Amino acid sequence: MKMPGLLDALHGVLGDKGLLTEAADLAPHLIDWRGLYHGATPCVLRPATVAELAVAVRLCAAAGVAMVPQGGNTSMVGGATPDESGRQVVVSLIRMNRLRDLDPLDMTMTVEAGMVVQAAQSHAAAAGCLFPLSFGGEGTATIGGALSTNAGGNTTVRYGNARELALGLEVVLPNGAVIGGLRALRKDNTGYALRQLFIGAEGTLGFITAAVLRLFPAQPAQEVALCALRDEDAALALYRRFRGRDEGAVRAFEYMARNGMELVLRHIEGASLPLAQPAAHYALVNLSAARADAGLRGLLEAVLEEALEAGEVLDAAIAESEAQRAAIWRLREEHPEAQRRAGGSVKSDVSVPVSKVPELLRRCHADLARLIPGGRPIAFGHLGDGNIHMNLQQPEDMALDAFLARSEDVMMTVNTIVRDLNGSFSAEHGVGRLKTEMLRDWRGGAELETMRRIKAALDPAGLMNPGKLLP
Ligand code: 2HG
Ligand code: ZN
């Protein structure tokens, strides 16, 4: 089938609301959040049901047309935008956003892929439960995208990645067949755990259309503190102190450094530092518990006191209200937006064993300063997971093009250190289009070969999100 015939057939299945072809409607689907890629497409499909999607997929497959799944389009690695050929069709899952089921007794909820992560959190909260997945893009990113990329975020240290939160999946395969795996079971040893194949596959093996997600007890007790730290080692030492006291109480443990905090204070309206003086290193500690009388404040104060005495913590601000907790979290969460407003940046979302984070930070700072004099290393992220966003901000006196032309060198500089520390070149943002060559380099041999065989088995014609993930 030629494209005009395919478009007619798709219109017949999806109707006016389900098929966009006007340039103005297509535009937001063609650029990634970071503005790295500007793709082209003849249309955006917006199915409202699994049945509609399955028929549309069959039509595209029969026509040999490639499909790019898209949720909130917040990928950090260009994973959800089509290429420049104008031959890939975008399939937005955004209209498939229903809550199908929520069971506070089983502590599960079944949601469709297009539901925004924040909406999933709200549904859980309304039922007196917690859906713990939480990250900066949660107001836009969807459950389908979060699962497809195995999103991490701020609470991984306590609840695990998206992968750990999904008990069952419904998937439309590249040939239009549907896997109806929406089982809400904690135990289910019945062969290959197929759902795990699609989680983290970045849409290269099929469409995740719905998921059974795990819920947890709501956490009415919350404590948040911002700590000024002596150095990188003190950040790790403080984390260990909390873990040693009560590992289960730590909801998040985030690291930030001076440069990033400065950008937030300069570019984000209303941001202010709740400490007497700026520091070179900061930690955000968030403790939480299901019981209001869990004694979190005592725990927090006792650990901070010890760390102050040991000279690791120089100063700390403990939030006294929900507003203050939110204000401290904002200092951390606005890092990406502040970086965006401050000009160009090269991002490296890396992980190392937690014990190696101080070494990672020190070596990256030294090598990046040598590589691009005047470039500002912006290091922040999920220290409790060993996951640091080791970014570099454009020097104020360097043109954007000239800076971005050095992107490869910058990422290579960071990756060389990460590799030496037995880490990963992508901790939570995935591979997308940006890092396919890194995948070849780091996961070559039997590992990549196995991935290719899985891809060939499920998507022999290579129609699912081509150019992403696999080199
Ligand atoms: C975060 O932790 C996100 O805020 C984005 O993973 C990180 O912009 C980044 O580098
Ligand atoms: Zn992150």
Q: Assign an overall shape.
A: globular
Largest sheet properties:
8 strands, antiparallel
Radius of gyration: 23 Å
- Name the assembly state: single chain
What is the average per-residue confidence, as pLDDT, rounded to a whole number? Answer: 97
| Percent of residues in beta strands | 15-25%
The total of beta strands comes to: 19
Which structural class best describes the helix and strand composition?
alpha+beta
**Helical content (DSSP H or I, runs of 4+):** 25-40%
Helices, by number, come to 18
Low-pLDDT sequence parts: none
Q: Report the end-to-end length measured between terminal Cα atoms.
A: 28 Å
Bound molecules: (2R)-2-hydroxypentanedioic acid, zinc ion
Layout: helices, strands, pairs:
Elements: H1 3-14, E1 19-20, H2 23-26, E2 44-45, H3 50-63, E3 67-70, E4 89-92, E5 99-103, E6 108-112, H4 117-126, E7 129-130, H5 143-148, H6 156-159, H7 162-165, E8 166-172, E9 178-181, H8 194-198, E10 207-214, E11 216-217, E12 221-229, H9 232-246, E13 250-257, H10 258-267, E14 281-289, H11 296-309, E15 313-318, H12 322-333, H13 335-341, E16 345-346, E17 349-351, H14 357-371, E18 376-382, E19 387-393, H15 400-404, H16 407-420, H17 436-443, H18 446-458
Parallel strand pairs: 2-4, 3-4
Antiparallel strand pairs: 1-2, 5-6, 6-10, 7-11, 8-9, 8-10, 12-14, 12-15, 13-14, 13-18, 16-19, 17-19, 18-19
Helix pairs in contact: 1-3, 9-11, 9-14, 10-13, 14-16
The structure holds (2R)-2-hydroxypentanedioic acid and zinc ion.
